[in-house]
Design brief:
It contains 13 helices and no strands. The chain is mainly alpha-helical and 323 residues long. The longest helix is centred in the N-terminal third of the chain and has 37 residues. The relative contact order is 0.12. Belongs to the binding-protein-dependent transport system permease family. Pfam families: BPD_transp_1 (PF00528). This is Peptide/nickel transport system permease protein.
């Protein structure tokens, strides 16, 4: 029994080391994902709960263009409206447009990219032609033209216009990956066994495309928020809806920059930048999952960074030990 215990202890210790190493490697790798999700989640929570707690953003008070303080956390506008209440409703509006555009763009990309590539033949050629035409058409002028000719621009119309110009690039990527997946052995086996096309697409092909779809969804949300902010800034945004872009538009018309009312235009601009940075961190972490070479390069760079630190720690320890 004593010999058995002595043999088992090194084995347990040896089996425990790789787990620690794995945990050490996983924690830094997911740091960007955790930071991005935390920041984006906090902004989304503010957009969901803020409008319920802060009241009407169109309510007018007697304090016009008041600086932050005196009961107004972010001050008031030129007409006495609470900037914090406007910011909460604008956050909800911008996030709603971002999610709508992301969902519609991903649906169009998946339909034209995955379905066309798997079916092949004239269907693939027709879908590729439509995709190439949408890639050639400049997106921003098309969005401006469509928005300028529609008098009543609602939230869903702006989201649809932005989605119309943002799905083609993702469809090309999904088509290329699907053409590779359709020739795999497990897909061919499912096809020979008589599985239906929709089941092969949903069960065999779509799960392998989920990281790419997630990355495209994040990029589509960023594009939608920036695109809507640009449209609203030039007066072509959604009418009757508060967004970050509409706040910047009213701040520009109210001469906030000239009057020094920084609390009017800095918060929406800062939220656009911070939310875009958070989604970029999420997108970078997804890229590391999709691309093994990028993940290996990140780990190699981290090891090179840790080597000098380990050497300095060891030299400091030996220096303290010597009298």
């Amino acid at each position: 029994m004593e010999t058995t215990l002595e043999v088992q202890r090194p084995a347990a210790a040896a089996s425990g080391r790789p787990k620690k190493n794995r945990n050490r490697q996983r924690r830094p790798r997911s740091a960007k994902l955790i930071a991005g999700l935390s920041i984006a989640g906090a902004i989304a929570l503010f957009g969901i709960l803020g409008p319920m707690l802060l009241g009407d953003p169109n309510a007018i008070s007697n304090e016009t263009l008041a600086a932050p303080g005196n009961g107004m956390l972010l001050g008031t506008t030129q007409t006495g409206q609470d900037v914090l209440a406007q910011l909460a409703h604008a956050t909800r509006g911008s996030l709603t447009i971002g999610v709508l555009v992301g969902a519609m763009a991903i649906a169009a990309s998946a339909f034209f990219g995955i379905v066309g590539a798997y079916i092949g033949g004239w269907t693939d050629e027709a879908f590729s032609l439509i995709t190439n035409v949408m890639l050639v058409i400049p997106g921003l002028p098309l969005v401006i033209v469509i928005s300028s000719y529609v008098p009543d621009k609602g939230l869903f119309l702006i989201a649809g216009v932005l989605a119309l110009t943002s799905w083609a690039g993702g469809a090309r990527v999904l088509r290329a990956v699907t053409l590779s997946l359709r020739n795999r052995d497990y897909v061919a086996a499912s096809r020979v066994s008589g599985e239906k096309t929709w089941r092969i697409l949903l069960v065999e092909i779509l799960p392998n495309l989920m990281p790419i779809l997630a990355s495209q969804m994040v990029f589509a949300v960023i594009f939608a928020i920036l695109g809507e902010a640009g449209l609203a800034f030039i007066g072509l945004g959604a009418s009757g809806t508060w967004t970050w872009g509409s706040m910047l538009f009213y701040a520009q018309n109210g001469l906030a920059l000239r009057l020094g009312a920084w609390w009017w235009f800095v918060p929406p601009g800062l939220l656009i930048a911070v939310f875009g940075a958070a989604l970029s961190l999420i997108n970078f972490s997804i890229d590391e999952i999709i691309n093994p070479k990028l993940r290996d390069q990140t780990l190699a760079a981290r090891k090179r960074w840790n080597k000098p630190r380990a050497g300095k720690t060891a030299s400091a320890g030996t220096g303290k030990a010597t009298p």
